[in-house]
Amino acid sequence: VIPYKYGELKGIWLRPSEKTPAEIVKTIQRVKDAGIDTIFLETYFHGKTIYPSQVMKDYGATEQYEHFKGFDPLAVWLKEAHKRDIKVHVWFETFYAGNANINGNPHSIIAIHPEWGNRMGKDADAPQPTRSPSEHNGYFLDPANPLVQDFILKLITEVTTKYKVDGLNLDYIRYPQIVSVTEPTSWGYTEFARREFKALYNVDPVDINVTDPMWLTWSNYRRGKITQMVKKINAYCKQRNIYLSAVIFPDRLSALNTKMQDWKTWSDNN
Predict the structure, then answer these.
(1) Does the pTM exceed 0.90?
(2) Is 189 within 8 Å of 119 (Cβ atoms)?
(3) How far apart are CA 111 and CA 102, in angstroms?
(4) Taking the chain (270 residues) in consecutive chunks of 10 residues, what is each chunk's mean pLDDT?
(5) Of the candidates 221, 231, 136, 229, which has an alpha carbon nearest to the alpha carbon of residue 185?
(6) Residue whose C-alpha is closest to residue 108's, from 128, 127, 135
């Protein structure tokens, strides 16, 4: 139905479940036969890596997805895909950290660093980070925290240095939404963000509501943290000549207000 265009990317998002090299080859051949030339391979998702990660190990977190223990699936995906002229981009769940309850999952990055967990305003003073009921009941990391940004950059540096990937695809490069997809997000009320914002503007964001003139300032603060992360990753990728893409929400106002994702600014600033 859609005319073929020479050189046009024909891609697929793919979460790997194959547990042997033979299973990987079989899937890649199916992809090839379907005319797809680019695989966006889910490589860091639910807070774990499919490959053995020294970075995760250094943080005391789960070194590799348990069901891939014993071999390195990413190495096989890259080798076999490249043999068939298929490109592989790392699909990377940037600020999403998984939905395993931290009380029973001591080796998750959120359990190790609960202060890194994102929070809704109603949970600002709660002892544990908030889980997002509208998004897998999962935890999200705090984009404002420089230690979180450092952790993410270390993971990205590791996977793009250790492996010859064809690109990096940033997913969850945003704040979580609340249950309604039209209401402004009420996320970002971490101890770090509240302290920094108060130092800048002499007001605790917990005391700001959507009708307050300061709400725009609070929103721009959070949007700026996402953009800051994109800028850092973009600079790194340009330096290493790595193709960078991002998962964005096409309704610009919705992206701005419900997820703090200012993709127009990213595009305008290359």
Answers:
(1) yes
(2) yes
(3) 5
(4) 84 97 98 96 98 98 96 98 98 97 94 96 93 92 98 98 98 88 82 98 96 96 98 98 96 93 96
(5) 221
(6) 128
